[in-house]
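BUG: 3D viewer hangs when loading the predicted structure for this chain

Environment: internal workstation, default settings.
Expected: structure renders.
Actual: progress bar stalls at 90%.

Input used:
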Amino acid sequence: MRNFVLSIGILGAMFMNAQTYSFTKSTGTYADLTGAAILNNTNWGDFETAIKLPFTFKYWGVALSDSIYVDDWGSLSVDNSYGVEISFMFEDLNSRGASKSPISYVVSGVSPNRILKVEFKNVGFNSDLPGVVDSANAQCWLYETTNVIEYRYGTASVKTTTWTDAGVYVGIFDPSFMKFVNLEGNPASPLVNTSNINAFNPLTTLPASGTIYKFTPSGTGINSPKIKLQQVGNTIIIPNSMIVNSVKVFNVNAQLMMDVKSIDSNIDISALPQGIYFITLQTNEGTVTEKVIRY
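Structure tokens produced before the viewer hung:
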């Protein structure tokens, strides 16, 4: 059994994370997939299996390889590592019996507007064993061209004692977990966590049937500018080609030490105490973060 625990430093999370997806919640009619290919319909427990991607799909601005991987934790992995990057029902799931809990997928539509749909149907929960009374239905949709991700939820019956980690983890996470959108608390109006990697919390229960969670790439900050900052003494050199909208400087304890809204020249950090700092520049091309030293 896996736990949703990450040992990543707070500084790395603060400086590398940016909300590059917008989140919206809506409602619609949930329908089981038809004509779907079955990935697993045994009396399964642990499993991971590949789906060959039918189209190019970009995740956090990076084109995925030729396959995506489905596992028994209600999530998709982009790198065959039992990851939880695309996490629509992260819990320790189980089959409710042979032929009773199929995992399947289908590709609908025509190019360039196809949708890859993955369904977990009538699945049970490991903590509910041996009876496997509780059940849930959910789908994950990946959209061609727009690279939108949708989670769609069907009927569920889950006792509070079923949860392995006090609830179900739902969100999207880049493979390094430095960028993420984690949904927390009440599934009807979830809190959206995009910055605090040291305090991931679950949804308290699965969303109601008909709930649709949508993650839309914003295009802001997905790609960082390919520019290396230079430092001369206590001056940070800004390349002439870079348009800087704001500057933040943090110390090694993640405390904000400088916050400048606009910059039209190089940055002087001589007013700071001696030590190591991290400087983050928000530019028209994206975000640049570098370690600097106040001498």
